[in-house]
Amino acid sequence: MRRAIRWTLILAVVGVIFGGCETKTTNIDIENDKGEAVMSLDYRDFQGAAQDMIESLLASGAVDKKDGERYVLVISRIINDTMQHIDTDQLIKKIRVGLLQSGKVVVTTAVGVSGAEDPMSMQTREELRGNVEFDQKTVAGKGEMIAPDLSLSGKILQRNIRVDSKTQRVEYYFQLSLTDIKTGLAFWEDERIVAKRGSNKSVAW
């Protein structure tokens, strides 16, 4: 009995010791995050790269339509060529939002590299046309979808460089191209580099 009580006390003390060493969970102010940098990509890197790309594209005049109307943009293939399992939408979504807010571009979700981003545009047509339960005047007709004018494609690359026995440098390249679909010509291209230096013990994936 005494032995059982003794082990219970020991386990309780150990739990207090290790429990006290745990990092406290706190909310992050993403607009003013002073947290330490990490070797892998984090949301600050995506925010910075996206903002730079938006400013570069808008300043280039490539999306300034002469008649004052907006270009229709489709998102093409964005390749993740890093060691990390990242969702490229982290970058592209921010760029899409910025371009939409500029009033110069609208994005079509009816087509995409792997099919429609939002299949409902086509599905509603297939399911509702001729269906007597629906007022056919409210069903989208043929020839109403708008084809894209421009295509946005790109790649995110990673390069690891050994500086010395203790230090490494990791470089991330954000590359984007804006292509005129009718001509196949790139109207705009840019690259942003995020470089980090840290311990060889740090994991960059």
From TrEMBL:
Its domain of life? Answer: Bacteria
Instruction: Check the record and name the Pfam families matching this protein.
Output: LpoB (PF13036)
Query: PROSITE patterns under this entry?
Result: PROKAR_LIPOPROTEIN (PS51257)
* Protein name, entry field: Penicillin-binding protein activator LpoB
Primary gene name: lpoB
